[in-house]
Design brief:
The structure holds two protein chains of two kinds. Chain A is α+β, with helices and mostly antiparallel strands. Helices cover 36% and strands 25% of the residues of chain A. In chain A, strand 11 and strand 12 form a beta hairpin. A seven-stranded mixed sheet of chain B has the order 3-4-2-1-5-6-7, sandwiched between helices. Chain B has a seven-stranded mixed sheet with strand order 9-8-11-10-12-13-14, sandwiched between helices. The relative contact order of chain B is 0.12. Chain B has two domains: 115 residues, NAD(P)-binding Rossmann-like Domain (Rossmann fold), CATH 3.40.50; 144 residues, Rossmann fold (3-Layer(aba) Sandwich). Chain B is globular, with a radius of gyration of 18 Å. The two termini of chain B are 20 Å apart. By secondary structure, chain B is an alpha/beta fold. The chains are: A alpha+beta, B alpha/beta. At the A-B interface, helix 4, helix 9 and helix 13 of A face helix 4 and helix 5 of B.
Chain lengths: 401, 299
């Protein structure tokens, strides 16, 4: 599950990471009010940031023609005007795809003068099976590009999960970021808060980019997390009711939400051949084999190890809701699950949905003969495949015709 | 021989009274596996009965192992309690713990990995189909089946199979069996980002096992475990290895069902893994339908 920037900043601030003063709002009037308060407290520049689960907001374009989902403003009136242009409109960035995302929330915050832009993040190092804190002097950039062009500019500190991020590790990282004087201790404290947030919230990734050295109100430089990105481990959400409440369903694909209700794992892709498979590995492999034979998969769909007739019916309805689907491949290796139950589910779903598209079914495994008999005697137009490759070739051919 | 488990291995089941654990305990007993004890806290003293067999249930893993001589545990405990169940089995000094549970928080597994460092207990999984060493009987019965794999698709023989995915393992095993080729041991190491045993660990065991003459290694996108295994095979491999990597068509940044199957930051792509296989001399199955055929061509 992904969080919005303002949610990530709240969680970080609660654990000692300094973030700019600000609030989230859903109307231009509220945005003006927040800005008035910020100016009254001495901010000279205020930023409004569209809250969507996608990067590249600053360089994005709204479908109404308004440029940029991140805007600096020098008056409350300007905040009101720009908030009006953003709210209720669709922002397209390089990460949203052409359909873009509806902006319904804005973060309005102080925007102090930035002296340096840095980068820091916490994630899992899979090879070490331990958390790793990553930092770089190249803040504000695409970190994947930095990793590709200048790997030496990324500093990594592996964390012993039993000990957590130790103060000396924080100081080492702060010094490597070129921080000096009082900022070493401030940097170590910020990184400690970042790590604590990652661990306590069961995050899979927290990225602060940029982490900035700014001119403080007393003239002294200080550190601020200017932007934050945070993803959570879905498997751990059961123990965080506060984080569950932060889920924003409007940021998720409706078909994927619908699939989740039936314990189906569905991811929409942009091809024309839908697939319905049991098991994540086999589902990925089925997408691959469709492409191998010249077709394009319309989705990933894992019905799990113990699919019921009801789930198969729900799965059919979901894949048929995608208007680009021109054919369906069902690939089931029923090790333990009864192939006949699946076969009955398929026949029922075809009748219920009045399916007109070509349907290729490959059934293998437990009670497969009964399953094949159910399909053959159903009177439903089903093309059967003997193996994965046979079935994939048949569905690609049927769609091409 | 075979690796990890033999037909006479004594197995206990943690979570034997849950519906999932009970169902697969029955299937393992039918297969001929020596399930000797169950563990469900609070149900000690009760008995799990199936087809005339009476399996004693204990409250504590250590107690179950002491009374029955079990050396291996199969875990069917729900995710919030599974990491504790793994550590209890390690504390009891078991040789092998096979954790089937799907959905364990990653940080729980990070802690388990730390706690297992320096211990002799090996963990397979979590989020895995388990381990099967096929037996001599009809439909390979008489073997050791730990977990949720269908027993009957196997056949006793000399090919080792290791995979992150359950159903792709079954696919490979079935392709072999249909060609009359049997398996020494089939191991599902699980689809989570942090697991107990890697591809490399299993490849090393197969390499050393005289009964294993060839290996099928099935990987998927995410992480770098396949690359590490490939690099080792290039230097040390003495047996033919064929492989398949799933997820070439998966969009980056999306988890494909398995918690660990994700391409992030440009890392863990199918293309990089396939290239590592190619460099190591591993036979690459162009499609998942050709896993067995690719290996048999090399043998």
């Amino acid at each position: 599950m992904n969080l919005h920037e303002f949610q990530a900043k709240q969680l970080l601030a609660q654990r000692g990471v300094p973030v700019p003063a600000g609030e989230v709002c859903e109307s231009a009037d509220a945005a003006r009010k927040i800005a008035e308060d910020l100016f009254a407290k001495g901010e000279t520049v205020v930023v409004i940031k569209a809250q969507i689960h996608a990067g590249g907001r600053g360089k994005g374009t709204f479908k109404n023609g308004f440029q940029g989902g991140v805007k600096l403003c020098r008056s409350a009136a300007e905040v009101f005007e720009k908030a009006q242009a953003m709210l209720g409109n669709v922002l397209v960035t390089k990460q949203t795809g052409p359909e873009g995302r509806l902006v319904s929330k804005l973060l309005v915050a102080g925007a102090p003068t930035i002296k340096r832009e840095l980068y820091c993040a916490v994630l899992l190092d899979r090879a070490a099976a331990r958390p790793v804190v990553m930092a770089s002097t190249e803040g504000g950039m695409d970190i994947e590009q930095v990793a590709a062009d200048h790997p030496e500019k990324i500093i990594r500190e592996i964390i012993d999960p039993a000990l957590g991020l130790l103060p000396f590790q924080g100081r080492k990282l702060a010094a490597a970021l070129g921080l000096q004087g009082g900022l070493i201790a401030a940097g170590a404290k910020l990184l400690a808060g970042l790590y604590k947030t990652w661990w306590e919230c069961d995050a899979t990734l927290i990225e602060i980019n940029p982490l900035c050295v700014v001119a403080g109100k007393d003239g002294q430089p200080s550190l601020l997390a200017i932007d934050a990105k945070m993803s959570l481990d879905d498997n751990a959400l059961y123990r965080h009711s506060d984080l569950q409440a932060m889920r924003d369903l409007s940021e998720e694909a409706p078909l994927e939400i619908q699939a989740g209700k039936f314990n189906l794992n569905y991811i929409k892709l942009d091809g024309s051949i839908a697939c319905l498979v049991n098991g994540a590995g086999l589902a990925m492999a089925t997408m691959d084999i469709i492409q191998h034979y010249g077709g394009r998969p319309a989705n990933f769909l894992d019905v799990g190890g113990g699919a019921s007739q009801e789930q198969v019916a729900a799965a059919f309805k979901i894949i048929l809701s995608d208007p680009h689907v021109e054919g369906i491949l069902v690939n089931i290796f029923g090790g333990i699950m009864d192939c006949n139950v699946i076969a009955k589910g398929i026949v029922g779903a075809v009748r219920e949905t009045g399916l007109q598209l070509p349907l290729v079914v490959r059934l293998e495994g437990n009670n497969v003969l009964a399953g094949r008999k159910t399909l053959a005697e159903s009177g439903v137009a089903i093309i059967t495949g003997d193996s994965m490759s046979d079935a994939a070739q048949k569905v690609v051919k049927a769609v091409a015709e | 021989m075979s690796i990890l488990v033999q037909p006479d291995t004594k197995v206990l089941v943690q979570g034997i009274t849950g519906s999932f654990g009970a169902r697969h305990t029955q299937l393992s007993l039918d297969y001929g596996t020596r399930i000797v004890a169950g563990v469900t806290p609070g149900k000690g003293g009760q008995v799990f009965e199936h087809a005339g067999q009476k399996i004693p249930i204990f409250d504590i893993v250590g107690e179950a192992a002491r009374h029955t001589g079990a050396t291996v545990s199969a875990i069917f405990v729900p995710p919030p309690f599974a990491s504790d169940a793994i550590l209890e089995a390690a504390d009891a000094g078991l040789d092998l713990v096979v954790c089937i549970t799907e959905g364990i928080p990653v940080n729980d597994m990070v802690k388990v990995k730390e706690a297992l460092r320096g211990r002799t207990t090996r963990l397979i999984g979590p989020n895995c189909p388990g381990v099967v060493t096929p037996g001599q009987g009809q439909d390979s019965s008489g073997g050791c089946r730990i977990g949720i794999a269908p027993g009957y698709i196997h056949k006793k023989g000399h090919i080792g199979v290791v995979s992150r995915s359950g159903t792709l393992t079954y696919e490979a095993v079935w392709q072999l069996t249909c060609r009359g080729v049997g398996q020494s041991t089939c191991v599902g190491i699980g689809g989570d980002p942090v697991n107990g045993t890697s591809h490399l660990d299993i490849i090393q065991m197969f390499n050393d096992d005289p009964e294993t003459h060839g290996i099928i290694m099935i990987g998927e996108i995410g992480g770098s475990a396949e690359e590490e295994a490939a690099a080792w095979i290039q230097k040390n491999g003495r047996k033919p290895v064929a492989g398949f990597i799933a997820g070439a068509t998966a969009p980056p940044g999306r988890r494909m069902g398995h918690a660990g199957a994700i391409v992030s930051g440009g890392k863990g792509t199918a293309a990089a893994k396939i290239e590592a296989f190619r460099q190591a001399g591993i036979g690459i199955a162009a499609t998942p339908s050709e896993m067995a055929a690719t290996l048999l061509k090399m043998m």
